Prior knowledge:
By secondary structure, this protein is mainly beta. The protein has strands at 11-17, 29-34, 39-41, 45-51, 54-63, 70-79, 88-90, 98-100, 110-115, 118-120, 128-133, 138-140, 145-150, 153-162, 168-178.
Amino acid sequence: IDHDGDPDTDSVTFTLTGSGFDEDGDELSYSWTDSEDNELCTTASCDVTENGAGSYLYILSVTDPYDDTTASDDVTVTVEEEPNADPEIVFSDDLVVEYMLPHDGVPGGCMDIELACAVSDPDNDELSCMWTDGDGNVLCNTLECNVEVCGAGDYEYTLTCTDPYGASESDSVDITVNPEPNEAPVADAGD
């Protein structure tokens, strides 16, 4: 089954080709049937469409018109599953993983940071992506995600991308937020 980006389309069409021989040179009749004895066609070549991966058995019967003698042979066709590769997550080389809270005159505080990275899929499938925090809370369902962090500390964020076939890839980035800088006050009591 060819990869087409849609896991719900799994049909494949192929041609069964057989032949028969009669020593008397009589014209033979042909019949292709499946494993459930359903007649598929009455020619030596037969186009067949199947849905889904698996092994399919087909029987070619050749009949002589003089004495209704029939010879049969079978063939098994194996249909492989549709190939699918996992998505790939690539964090940007210039992704800053260390931040400093801005000095605003109030100890502590919050700041916004942007989470972003590149993703790809070897099959060029459309991906759905989700950012979560270290507690598993969903933050965004996009590749770029703005989050607010409050207070200095270490934060972990995970990006998970999934293709339509359910194959997924996850990767995490650790962000360190340093406390805001603060210079010690200077006291001058005069001379």
